[in-house]
Calcium voltage-gated channel auxiliary subunit alpha2delta 1 (Astyanax mexicanus), 876 residues
Amino acid sequence: PKKHNTQEGRIHRIRPDFKEDPSFKNRLISYNHSAVHIPTDIYDGSTIVLNELNWTEALEDVFKKNREEDPTLLWQVFGSATGLARYYPASPWKDARKTPSKIDLYDVRRRPWYVQGAASPKDMLILVDASGSVSGLTLKLIRTSVSEMLETLSDDDYVNVVNFNTRVNNTACFDHLVQANVRNKKILKDGVQNITAKGITNYTKGFEFAFKQLSDPNVTRANCNKIIMLFTDGGEERAQEIFSRYNPEKKVRIFTFSVGQHNYDTGPIQWMACANKGYFYEIPSIGAIRINTQEYLDVLGRPMVLADAKQVQWTNVYLDALELGLVITGTLPVFNKTSSEDGSRKQLILGVMGVDVSLDDIKRLTPRFTIGPNGYYFAIDPNGYVLLHPNLQPKNPKFQEPVTLDFLDAELENDIKVQIRTMMIDRVPGNKTIDTLVKTQDERYIDRGVRTYTWAPVNGTDYRSAAFSCTLEKFEENGYTFIAPREYCQDLKITSNNTQFLMDFNQYIDKRTPSDPMCKYIQYIILPFNLIIKNVKGVLARFVATDGGITRVYPKSGGEEWTENAETFDSSFYKRSLDNDIYIFTAPYLNSKPPVHMFYLVYSSTRKCVCVCHVDCVILDDGGFLLMSNQEEYITQVRGLTLTPELHSSLSKRICRDAEEDDVVDGKQFFSLFFPLKMTCILYFSLTSIEISFPYLVLLTKYTFVGFFSAYSEEDTSDAYSKESCITEQTQYFFENDNRSFQGVLDCGNCSRMYRAEKLPSTNLVFLITDAKSTCLSCDPKPLKQAEQPSIGPDPCMLAQNPRYRKGPDVCFDNNDDVMLLLFSYEYSFTALMSLYVQSVHLLPWLQHRSSFCCCFSFVFDDGQFHFAFIVDQLV
């Protein structure tokens, strides 16, 4: 009968009329219905699920009303503690057009926004029984259980894993609690896999070690909920003396897990949990791991129920499961406020409400084109992670973990930026103008520029911006013109149909003028300018680019083959020209991009260097790239001389800084995500062994941390739960001082070679000439490459010893004397629940409503958890 009813229910399911919606990146959407997702490991015909489907259906009307009040709302989601997720508007969970064979491993209770919204921060010590009795299948279950437990933690939590028998050992290299970020969790999981079972169980030693580590005042912690998770097969010892000594007030909750199928007495570990405000769970097989390792969140949520917590929490940046891209989510927990027959409150957290805010929408609200090409806006959270930054640009991301890119990793770290980060986290407004190193848009060069940082907490503060404009007198009609695809008029949208767009534009200009407030950017492209046409021998083409997004190329034939980005704010050559008062030459790309080009002029790079055959002649740019040579080999292969470690023999200074870790990138080739991170080692080299002049600054840079989350493709699902790590580093060069020339002799052991280098005036070029001795090959080095290379990266254990400054949430809902110890029950009052829901849902749409913005570009979140700042390009 149950099977028949289930099939009959599926026949009568509603099939909405879906249409593509550009607001959801052309995903199929229906605003007439909400949709429900149920995890694959939960029976969708169970009484609990059917009950939740029934009473959550009333949310659909609330969702629709919210949408009417604020049409900019995106996904509205309720995640239930049972695993059911109801979201609006409705959309097919699997898009058969894109991923027809996608395996559904989604569980709303494992999503970053649910984890952060369901409970306050935690200090968790995971205690693993490593005695001989757990060997075999039980130990395998423990390893998997601990890994799943770590997945329930967020960046606001702190954790460590230790194993014990007659001795206690740290599972990984951490000797104290560490932040539960992606990389630290990966290291702990690897350590758990190396646990071996031997000896006998000694709970007294294990718990004593755990309590001491939880109470260590000398390390950074969450300073909120304190919990110990014990994974064991059972035992006779109760360790009562330890609990009386270290936990007399029951401030530390203890959760115990009996793992495996065995005949051991579980009474003692049940007593441990009940005597310390925890819970006891059984994990007899792998199928029980997932559900039993996440139910503790419901217990930790009870103090929030008693406190009637209504504080909105905002997540880190993460990838939306329904392909909206990178988002942040505002969340509120939903409680059961009904009372039992004896008058006591049930203290149950029913789930979490969430509303997504797309990073693309936030970017569109920032006046990017009014502060100059080298200016930008960024925002950070209390952990120092950016939620808005130009370098937060993942490529093909497909991951479940939050994207935790620290501000100091997104830029080139220095002491002043450390201070800026600290002040922003402490919500102290300010501004600083600094001389800093800047990586170019194409990541090939390093420039030194002056930048003004202005920051303030996002709670109604006004912001300042800077603008750079260009005014010329005459417009030349000859040549080829490119216009950047910007939203010049906010209420005139660009369409793929040019004819329709022109018709719309003709109607539009009858109503608007360029001075209209809705067309504040149009003035930048109507500015007349003059391009003086002169025939210069060797010049293939010349161009003029403007802040307004106009690029003029002459002659027209040059424009027809032009491949540079029409958006000047995204063009390296344009942005570099503002940081340098010289002619900038750029080396040819290895792909089909243009050859050597200079601001205003484009030269052919095929002309040979006028040098005699017994010398090597090369011209390098300030990034160490070859522009011209009388040799056919590449720069690092021109008789092994140019930019080699041997040539940089007078090493004058070495400065190394640690790199932080929390960039999430998938390690498999299918899913790649790259973030530019901070410059890790700074090496000052001189091109001569005789005098310290004209050195290059070599930056062994850009640790790109990859992966640490479930990575699988549609074609390969056998390793769906694997975690992989990949770190790369990059080497870059730039001129450190203004010395014009130098010369010397390079000693190669059995021979020597003379060389001379001359910096070409008013350019970023160096002319280098050396003896071309074909018999002097002992100096041939291993080629230096700028491309990203595999690296072991910084020592994670050392990083954990000196964590970066952060600040946890201002409010903590932890252990409460009024919290009752009762078994979970999902027998709710429908009327009471819906009343609660309506109250909770109405608190959310407003978080991103336009009326909450303090001005046209500064967004305000009620809890003040995010901080907003921007950088203004300082032209000198």
User: Anything to note?
Assistant: The chain has four domains: 14-110, 121-300, 311-486+521-606+808-876, 615-794. The chain has a mean pLDDT of 70.
